[in-house]
């Protein structure tokens, strides 16, 4: 493949060894100006030191942006309004972050007059797809440089040698035998020792959650309030989206909630094991479903539920910025107009369970039917006609089958 | 409504006060022969004493049948091959039992030459629908007598008075402030104090599970083996379907697993709170999904998952014996041909979590690609073309939108 | 069933024999005030004479409203934005009219302080369901009187006798051996001789369309322009929704377009033959699909198409005024933002066929890719990676299956 | 891209200029043995002369196989049991042929000990995907050579020059300004002048159908009989699948039936205009739907219909040999057990229309309900309970909404 021409590039930069090598490699191979961009999505690391690191490794300009509120408000919450879950288990913590990073990266590309963008995702994973689909959405003519698909640095040793040759400091901490990605919604682990799908992940891997065995011996009850499907308060205290999620992470982490071990299907066609900690998100989803139970119409719920596998697939596969996701979001958001109420949850040793739900404004349960005469709302005798007509096609079919014999 | 003519009727009879009153009421009102039928579905009660009770209350003939193996093998397992779940929470323990009771009841009706059947389900619930849709499937011309929709005994006191007048013994134990239904798959609770949807159910209500707080302080690991999507062994010991489910109930109950508190949508159109204990079923579903993770094709899984809300709805609404359920079962069963393998699970204080899965025969993960040259299976460079073409329609659309501005 | 108490009732009144008898019967049986309501939905009859007829038969007040524009704009067009079709053939001409009639009827009920409404639909058909579901939407406590389900006038002769006894004039024209319903969207025929499903309907039954054999020997070409999925002009002439549909009915009728003969499934559970003439609607749907072809994203289209059977079912079954239909409409309407363009159609002897489509603003076809370098939009080599990764899961599966042997 | 090593290759060979050049190019570039394979799928050309041509152009071995019966029986008919249609218009005539060609090609590869296969599909179209997904299904390690994605012969002139240099005879007939693909199910046209989506295709393009204007002035009636969803006889004469389809092509072509002009979405992400003639297939689909109308359960039909867009997409995108298509076929075939009956159709000037349908064994319409008492099957009064309970959730919601105000 002929090398593309690049004048100025924005690199999604974490400050770690890999993206530092990429930064230098871009300078070496493309001879272009490099703008680095680091997003604060709540990954828990201090990002400011990244600035100096980037300049030292050759960056021409450095962007560091706090995107936490935008992340939760415009990405996490819309997705949670849908109860999205991938393959029955994964709450899409990494999938939902990539489009936002790409969006901001493309804004910077425009501000800075860049003709290319780059990321550090490998050629076997989902993240390259998520980044690049979003890049192309914002500028279909952008040049994308994906070093892992281009370079020959295909082993850890080759990378380290490259770093040494290029004066990139190599962290002295031993590399952990898995890779991970963290933001306000979750932390994920994959690769390394996790590739033995039969082996339980080691306890020392977990970051956001206590072991259930070490969680408090007393359950904790919390109440979460929702307005139009969005969580707005915990135990009566209103919080911004990012504050609320961070707060639930703390509580959920304390109780060991939200660990998932999944062998999942990647968009590129292979299976891959992912282990996740999503303490706040797990609580949030349970609470949201509880409030839906009391406020959402049955047919709305069943129709919506049948579409969630497809919606989650869109997000997992990188189609956040797509007309089909937006179209489905219209439907989902319409379904949330009445999702106003409070869920009561019990947290205990790795598990969260609904124990109560109420809605003053939108309850569809046990309304005061005072305006009705007795039996006007529900007359038991009506059930006979209901059953008779619902069974009519089955009875006719049974007759037909009997006649055939 | 004119009273139907009935000569001989089969009554689904539990031996409790309500169906005893119905038995007598049928004799009094219809002047017909009454055959009672009691099914052992693993509800945990000794059924033999029911025989004497039935005769004493006026039964002309009594059937008591052990249907446990048929229940698990032909009803529970096919449903679990689909991972069926209603409204995200309910494992359909009562829904799946009704069609089997109705099936056997209709067989007895034919053996005994009955022209009618009767059941004790009320006119506001789902069970009347499930019973009667199944009855009509087997005989579209059968006469159905649903006493709760016919009689005037609309209060507890009226029932007790009726019982007293008719020499039906009234249990001295105090009635619990909820109603329940139990079988090998679950026990359900509804009504009474549960109708306050904000109130946590009392601990003394639970029957099958220990409180998580009182469950063992040490986690337990178990392994469940599947063949064609059906569980066949636990920790290496092969068991029949009913034995296996009973065994998992014991283990799961000990660890407080499978409690669910749900405000659900009934088929007759109202919301209703159901609290469930499904210890073995909860474990079984988790294990089944784990084995599917390693053996099931991605598109098969996603397509299947999109249909499960509809499949679960069919079962919940009483359409087990319907061409649409059977047609969907064909598809589900085809998807299970490769679901052969073992799941490893961790049980601890109310929660079950997958920690490993393997399949010797059908793993789609990390196969030995020895027959391939390096990079022939997966060449990272392929990802570029994959992303480029997957984004093509999005890039064209972005161009169009940009041109519009 | 105990007779309900009714003080004042609004009757959906056509002026025909049946609803005249109902008008008198309501007076006789319920002793209530009767307000009649006749809607002009473009059924082609002069409605003004109905006024006198109603008063003569005993009406206390008469409403006659021209709802044609509202009908097409707010009911027909939203449905056509979805390409809704029931069981592959029926364009829902009657189904979509009933909710509007019910809506206006309920408005009148409120204006007039009525406690009840009534309609002339029989107890075996779909229309009773459509009317009553809509009534209850607007007032869940309204009393509904459905004479055909209540009275004993179960034969034509009984009706005629009743009319004679009550001085209701009996039309001298012979009753046609089928029943029909007409509005701006279609005319339907059912019952009578049509119940022989093997017999071709007689040529003299058709009202809106010439026989294809008698249609012009020369094809006609027309162009229809759409904005946001709604037809706004024919052959360059802008028209209001009702005018446009009427115009297409004239053209389509001349060419014998839009006859459909369908054995369909009613919502009450039986099959029923319906024969339809929908000349304008048939043209409109073809044109709309043509403009979608050039302006709609692939995934949007495929997702939408998978939901249309469900959407059409909602309308057919009477759930126009339901949260699930409204929620789906949000999604459909979002998909129509870009459906701007022109379709060119050929009309000839019973058939309409697209022969061209264009969109100046929203075409996704063959854009001028001038801003791109050669091969940047589409590089044939990309297809290899696309195919390789799309086939990855299939190749892995084939390996697994081969290993099993 | 490094050239792959190839020893012996099977080429899907039509005998035309393009695949002749490919044959020679494979010899020149890969220096490998070339086996040609030509399939008779009813494309209407004499294939025997292809043998000599292949040898003259350098083939080492030649296969010519008549696959017509297999094509219709095992590919076309299963697809028609589903009423599959792509984007509302395209009957998938080319899509369904590719997997069969690939299947036979891979069988030959195994017989002949080939390590590679090749085809003449371009790098911008669907067919490369369909061929190669099927190749990989049969042998995930096969080497695929796709000359159009590899060579530099990117213009017509380059091809002709190559042919001249290599002594490949160039047809003297002028190339038509479109490309086409024909088999027993259809002929397709695309490219060239058709890329102006506003222009009507010229009348002289059509091959299988008379112009409707020149079709007979008298309609023709035909009857088609189905067993388990497969057509088995026309006008009482039983025929094999391929005979029957050929017969319907003749009749349909005479009446100008089955022309479709579609701007469709390709699997590689662009829109493309396709014009099709599918005379027999169009008749077959209409007839099949007519027999389903009288024999298929409502819920089975509606569920099936909601899945057809997805099923058609699978076939269009080349996933015939995939577990998801097979799984869906299980469901579809189960739905066809009762599809036994006869359709009566009217053919006239470009259009086919159902005018009758019957089924002696499986009709669900108007059965003789002799075993029932009057009103036992359908009691009009039942409709009230049916409507009341179906509206219950809507009434409760209306109350809630009213309370909110």
From TrEMBL, chains A, B, C, D:
PANTHER family reported in the protein's UniProt record: ARGININOSUCCINATE SYNTHASE
Signal sequence, renumbered to the chain: none
Quaternary structure and partners: Homotetramer.
Residues the entry annotates as binding L-aspartate: 122, 126-127
A Pfam family this chain is assigned to: Arginosuc_syn_C
Protein name in UniProt: Argininosuccinate synthase
Statement: the UniProt record of this protein carries the keyword Nucleotide-binding: yes
Gene3D superfamilies tied to this protein: Argininosuccinate synthetase, chain A, domain 2 (3.90.1260.10), HUPs (3.40.50.620), Single helix bin (1.20.5.470)
Residue positions binding ATP: 12-20, 39, 120
InterPro entries: Arginosuc_syn_C (IPR048268), Arginosuc_syn_N (IPR048267), Arginosuc_synth (IPR001518), Arginosuc_synth_CS (IPR018223), Arginosuc_synth_type_1_subfam (IPR023434), AS_cat/multimer_dom_body (IPR024074), Rossmann-like_a/b/a_fold (IPR014729)
Gene Ontology terms describing biological process: argininosuccinate metabolic process; L-arginine biosynthetic process; urea cycle
Reaction equations catalysed: L-citrulline + L-aspartate + ATP = 2-(N(omega)-L-arginino)succinate + AMP + diphosphate + H(+)
Domain of life: Bacteria
CDD domains referenced in this protein's UniProt entry, alphabetically: ASS
Keyword Cytoplasm: yes
Record family assignment: Belongs to the argininosuccinate synthase family. Type 1 subfamily.
């Amino acid at each position: 493949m002929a090398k593309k021409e690049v004048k100025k590039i924005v690199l999604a930069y974490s400050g770690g060894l890999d993206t530092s090598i990429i930064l230098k490699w871009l300078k070496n191979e493309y001879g272009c100006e490099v703008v680095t961009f680091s997003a604060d999505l709540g990954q828990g690391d201090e990002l400011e030191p990244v600035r100096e690191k980037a300049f030292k490794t050759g960056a021409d300009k450095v962007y560091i942006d706090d995107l936490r509120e935008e992340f939760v408000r415009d990405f996490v919450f819309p997705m949670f309004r849908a109860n999205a879950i991938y393959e029955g288990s994964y709450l899409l913590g990494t999938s939902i972050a990539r489009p936002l990073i790409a969006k901001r990266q493309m804004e910077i590309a425009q501000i800075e007059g860049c003709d290319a963008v780059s990321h550090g995702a490998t050629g076997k994973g989902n993240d390259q797809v998520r980044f690049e689909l979003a890049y192309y959405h914002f500028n279909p003519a952008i040049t994308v440089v994906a070093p892992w698909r281009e370079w020959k640095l295909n082993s850890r040793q080759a990378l380290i040698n490259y770093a040494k040759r290029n004066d990139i400091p190599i962290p002295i901490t031993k590399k952990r035998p898995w890779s991970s990605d963290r933001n306000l919604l979750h932390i994920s682990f994959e690769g390394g020792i996790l590739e033995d799908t039969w082996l339980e992940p080691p306890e020392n891997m977990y970051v956001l959650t206590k072991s259930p065995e070490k969680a408090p011996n007393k359950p904790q009850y919390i109440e979460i309030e929702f307005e139009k499907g969005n969580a707005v308060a915990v135990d009566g205290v209103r919080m911004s989206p990012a504050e609320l999620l961070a707060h639930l992470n703390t509580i959920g982490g304390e109780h060991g909630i939200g660990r998932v071990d999944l062998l999942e299907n990647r968009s590129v066609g292979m299976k891959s094991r992912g282990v996740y900690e999503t303490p706040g998100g797990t609580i949030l989803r349970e609470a949201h479903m509880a409030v839906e139970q009391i406020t959402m119409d049955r047919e709305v719920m069943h129709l919506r539920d049948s579409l969630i596998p497809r919606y989650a697939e869109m997000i997992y596969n990188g189609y956040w910025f797509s007309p089909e996701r937006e179209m489905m979001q219209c439907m989902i958001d319409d379904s949330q107009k009445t999702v106003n109420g409070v869920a009561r949850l019990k947290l205990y040793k790795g598990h969260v369970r609904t124990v109560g739900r109420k809605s003053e404004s939108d309850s569809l349960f046990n309304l005061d039917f005072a305006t009705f005469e007795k039996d006007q709302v529900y007359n038991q005798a009506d059930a006979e006609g209901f059953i008779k007509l619902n069974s009519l096609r089955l009875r006719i079919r049974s007759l037909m089958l009997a006649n055939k014999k």
